[in-house]
Amino acid sequence: MNRDLTTLSPTARLAPHQVTLVRDAEAAASEDLRYQSPPERYPELPFPTARLANPVYALLRRLLEAMGLDAARIGTPHWNPFSEILKPGQQVLVKPNLVHHQHYRGGQLHWLVTDPRLIRAVCDYVFLAVGREGHVIVGDAPLQSADWDALVRETRIERLPGFYASHGYRLSLRDFRTLRTVDRRGMKCDPTPLAGDPAGYRPVDLAGDSLHAGRDWRRFRVTNYNPHTMREHHNATRHEYLVAGSVLGSPVVINLPKLKTHRKSGLTGPLKNMVGINGCKDWLPHHSSGSSRDGGDEYGGRSTWKRLSSWLVEREETAGHIAQKLSWNAARRLVYGLGSMAATDRSWEGSWGGNDTLWRTILDLNRAALYADSEGALHDTPQRTLFTIVDAILAGEGEGPMAPEPVPLGCLLAAAHPLAAEMAAARLARWPESGLRQIGGAFGLERYGLAAFSRQDLDIEALDCVAGRMRRAPWTEFSRFLRPTSGWNHIAADEQPEAAAARAAEVEA
Q1: Which of 272, 324, 483, 493 is most exposed by smallest CB count within 10 Å?
Q2: Alpha-carbon distances of 280 from 69, 196, 275, rounded to whole Å
């Protein structure tokens, strides 16, 4: 039977099926990341104001008000919205999407990472609840080639630990990766061990309960990583992930995903963002080698040049010397370049809608985040609260997750249930739920399940912030079709807003 996740929320008012969505067009129009402090004096906050434009801060505040958190004290100096979720002295993990330190096609960094102004605002309200005895960790595992120092510097979140320390609070920034490489023409070079999570790591083994169980584990791959390492952790008896201790040691995780398209999973949303709790990328099955006609899901249909390209990648990754790696890399680039010139379908590496592997990894990691205790052992009941706020201020379309084009939605949405947040994010992107296997897969789970409600139960309350005031509005007014990546061109807008509104009215009637 499906597990009831009402225990995810310590307050009964945050029902699993409820989502709150707020919009302010001014937030989408403002792209100045320098101003992260409150734009005005809010009675509940002890932190100084900048009195400079920061509509993102105001938007989060309105979101928390709209959710009715600590409703009796809204507008007073004693308002403490997260007090219904957090306790004084707790450790809290704030999990943004900090995928890389630069946009792959020269765009702005905040087009692909969680808005740093949102990170700061969330942390302020978390500290209201946990107090000076609490500990806030802002952590993620970006791509292996990401420069963490450049990432936190350019987003200006490197200032957060010092800022909070000056007011008597403790915040830590943590890079959960165990290894960093340099990406040179698609080749991973100069592997450098990192200190990783100071809280260490725990292998979380889902074994036969993994969604990969029963599949051909010999095919599991993540491009540009050694497949032999993958087989040590995903095989006939084991399906394990290396989860950061900072995650497992936190009774509450606040998930801050960035809504954008993704080459392998379709969309980056609340569920996909949990991939960043894993410390080693080669513990993460991203696709199964070979074509869809041969039992794999790396690409659709048979293709000699794609098969040869994949073979050359693996020779490159298993080569013992840099000269050999360079030779294999040059051969691979030549084969791929010549092959793609004449091809109409260039999808490869599992970067297409037929990927039947990554969504399983995504759901495995969400179950680890919810059901694994501090030592990595799995239980039948949730071990921590997972609260989600989706950053759809500037959503991303096109070639995400690394080269998205910005879509100014100006929205934040929040939910106490990860699947409710995922479904709402898909609707905001106007994507059909059937196009996202992680949604259908979550509803199909039994042991360590995620679903606690039916699709019809999802309740999205939408509010538009106009001139500092909120008005109720149909959520369809806020939605906008996010154009998919090239491997997902089969995806079309689920419905026009008018049709969705009519359907919602019909269901309600």
Answers
A1: 324
A2: 37, 10, 10
